[in-house]
Design goal:
- This protein is mainly β and 329 residues long.
- The protein is built from one helix and 27 strands.
- It has one helix spanning 11-18, and strands spanning 48-54, 57-62, 67-70, 78-79, 89-94, 100-104, 108-112, 120-124, 131-136, 142-146, 151-154, 162-163, 176-181, 187-191, 195-199, 207-210, 217-222, 228-232, 237-240, 248-250, 258-263, 269-273, 277-281, 289-292, 299-304, 309-314, 317-322.
- The strands form seven sheets. A four-stranded antiparallel beta sheet has the order 1-2-3-4. A four-stranded antiparallel beta sheet has the order 5-6-7-8, with no helix packed on it.
- The protein starts with 10 loop residues before the first helix and ends in a 7-residue tail after the last strand.
């Protein structure tokens, strides 16, 4: 089995660690799951890895256990009142406006029942486990995935978890970078080395799908018409109209890697990634136009903030943007 010390295969983890000194301007502190989250003077500039929506609220997570909340479409941010860990949080999801979960290094799972104000530690999968993504179908059933093929599921809101086998043979220890839902009962996991894992029964069983590109995929989504998109290294986006049985490459006009993506209320798809890259599709992912933002930031996630407004998060914290900033081809 491939093992290199703490190799997660996810560039955003290294990115945010490298940016850790931006928290306060003081010396960088080592992550510590045994202490509560670091209280940052400039929390909105803390390195962040993911952002999601809890009703009308935006919730971002990142290094040192930082959880940020915005109730005004990303114009202002504050830290959550109580977060019991100082580990790097890599992903966050909400089943509704109150119930949410975040995962991170050390195999930790934290949960909230009040829209992200207060969090509790509900599970630890082990110090050597790096969880990279989490998704819940409802307030009880969820799945978390991570480095070296680690995956686990819960049916009781995260109080207990059971290991899940995703791949076999050489696929057994692929890094599982992002889990996301497709149409009906389908689930997908964007993984490394040109691999996507597919389930047609909400995670009870899994099959391996090979991409025509051998690089790693960092994320994915289902479009309004049920097309599956995955994105990742060197600007690659691939689409499938048959639930992962076949894939087609979608040109994006950039070779910058994409890490995050979102679908706006009007169906517009926005991808964000390294080197200030933004890509926008107005036709359900069949065509993209791309541009490089002047800040050339390294973005880990993106979410809509109303109309064409966007919130980007990454190594420099929170940034405002607009899908309208990407010129037409």
């Amino acid at each position: 089995m491939r093992r290199s010390a703490l190799r997660t295969g996810c560039w955003l983890v290294g990115l945010t660690l490298a940016a850790g000194s931006s928290l306060t301007g003081a010396e960088t502190q080592m992550p510590d799951p045994g202490r509560p989250a670091y209280l940052a003077r400039l929390a909105a500039k803390a390195p962040l890895t993911d952002v999601t929506r809890a009703g009308n609220r935006l919730v971002g997570v990142g290094d040192f256990g930082i959880v940020l909340l915005s109730d005004d479409a990303g114009r202002s941010w504050r830290q959550a009142r109580a977060v019991p860990v100082r580990s790097m949080l890599t992903a966050v999801t909400f089943a509704n406006e109150q119930r949410g979960w975040a995962v991170g290094h050390g195999g930790i799972v934290i949960a909230t029942a009040d829209g992200g104000e207060n969090w509790s530690l509900v599970h630890s999968a082990g110090a050597e486990v790096s969880l990279l993504s989490v998704w819940f179908a409802d307030a009880n059933r969820g799945i978390a995935v991570g480095a070296f093929g680690y995956a686990m599921g819960t049916a009781d809101a995260g109080r207990t978890w059971t290991r899940i086998t995703i791949g076999a043979g050489d696929d057994a220890d692929r890094h599982l970078n992002r889990v996301f839902p497709g149409p009906g009962e389908s689930l997908f996991i964007a993984a490394e080395t040109g691999t996507v894992f597919v389930s047609g029964d909400r995670g009870k069983s899994w099959a391996t799908s090979r991409l025509p590109y051998n690089g790693s995929m960092w994320g994915g989504m289902a479009t309004r018409d049920g097309t599956i998109l995955v994105w990742g290294m060197r600007g690659h986006v691939l689409s499938s109209v048959d639930l992962g049985r076949t894939w087609n490459d979608v040109p994006t006009g950039t070779d910058q890697s994409f890490s995050g993506g979102t679908r706006l209320a009007d169906g517009t798809i926005v991808l964000a990634g390294l080197g200030g890259a933004l890509a926008v599709s107005g036709d359900g992912g069949r065509h993209f136009r791309s541009s490089i933002r002047p800040d050339r930031g390294n973005y880990t996630a993106v979410i809509g903030a109303g109309g064409s407004d966007l919130v980007l998060v990454g190594g420099a914290g929170v940034l405002a943007a607009s899908s309208a900033d990407v010129p037409s081809n």
